[in-house]
Amino acid sequence: MDIILLERIEKLGTIGDVVTVKDGYARNFLLPQKKALRANNANKAVFEANRERLEKENAEKRTVAEASGGKVEGAEVVLIRAASNAGQLYGSVSVRDMVAGLAELGHEVDKKQVILGAPIKLIGMHDVTVALHPEVHVTVKANVARSDDEAELQSQGVDVLAQMFADEQREIEEQADANRIDPSLEPGEIPAELLDAPEGEAAEATEETSEDDA
Predict the structure, then answer these.
(1) 204: which of 104, 129, 140, 175 lies 20 to 30 Å off by Cα?
(2) DSSP string, 135-186
(3) DSSP state string for the chain
(4) What integer is the mean pLDDT of 100-124?
(5) How confident is the model at residue 204 (pLDDT cuts 50, 70, 90)?
(6) What value does the mean pLDDT of the chain take?
(7) pTM of this prediction?
(8) Whether pLDDT at 181 is above 70
(9) What is the pLDDT of residue 207?
(10) How far apart, in Å, are the Cα atoms of 145 and each of 77, 103, 106, 184, 202?
(11) What is the pLDDT of residue 178?
């Protein structure tokens, strides 16, 4: 379908451009949202008669959005959520959560302006785009954590998940050292030093290891 754009649409064009799009995209989104008109002779005439006014209104809205964008850009929304030890949320963070969080910070945005892509399902710092105007996009942060302390660490640039995994690996290695077991061995595998030891010593060491495991 050929349409006349009434505002800038990413990857399509800017106001006044006549472009071809799939019928479903036009009927289900562009036309109902008044972002475009069917490109027939009557609508072309109407658009040209109103072009100057439309372009002026668009410029005014862009100026207002740019002013708001300067305040919203970089805002950090802290969202405390329950999650597993692996950082997987018991649930997810949605557009609605971001809108509410921004409102608490004094930034009123419409849910249609928040571009999340997919719900957030892991703790950490996530970039979220807010489209204040077709030509004005800003980035805010979703700081998803399990506690205020964890959120503060992430705000300071600490990768909590990476730190958590590193701590777990260190504990495993320390436990292995304490039990004199090589952490690289497969379950039931005998350490190389025992294979080289005299038969009596190997048997004794194997018995000690078995007793420790019990």
Answers:
(1) 175
(2) TEEEEEEEEEESSHHHHHHHHTT--HHHHHHHHHHHHHHHHHHHTT--TTSP
(3) -EEEESS-BTTTB-TT-EEE--HHHIIIIITTTTSEEE-SHHHHHHHHHHHHHHHHHHHHHHHHHHHHHHHHTT-EEEEE--B-TTSEEEEEE-HHHHHHHHHHTT----GGGEE-SS-EEESEEEEEEEEEETTEEEEEEEEEESSHHHHHHHHTT--HHHHHHHHHHHHHHHHHHHTT--TTSPTTPPPHHHHHS-HHHHHHHHHHHHHHH-
(4) 93
(5) low
(6) 85
(7) 0.70
(8) no
(9) 52
(10) 11, 19, 21, 33, 49
(11) 66
pLDDT tens sequence across 54-93: 999 999 999 999 998 999 999 999 999 999 988 999 999 9
The candidate with the shortest Cα–Cα distance to 26, out of 45, 42, 6, 52, is 6
**Closest among 156, 121, 173, 36 to 181, alpha carbons compared:** 173
Asked whether the beta carbons of 128 and 150 are under 8 A apart, the reply is no
Rg (the chain; Cα; Å): 30
Cβ contact 12:19 at 8 Å:
yes
| Per-residue confidence (pLDDT) for residue 195, from 0 to 100 | 60
Confirm if 109 and 136 have CB atoms less than 8 A apart: no
| Number of residues that make up the chain | 214
Where do we find the tokens 């964890």? 150
pLDDT of residue 161: 82
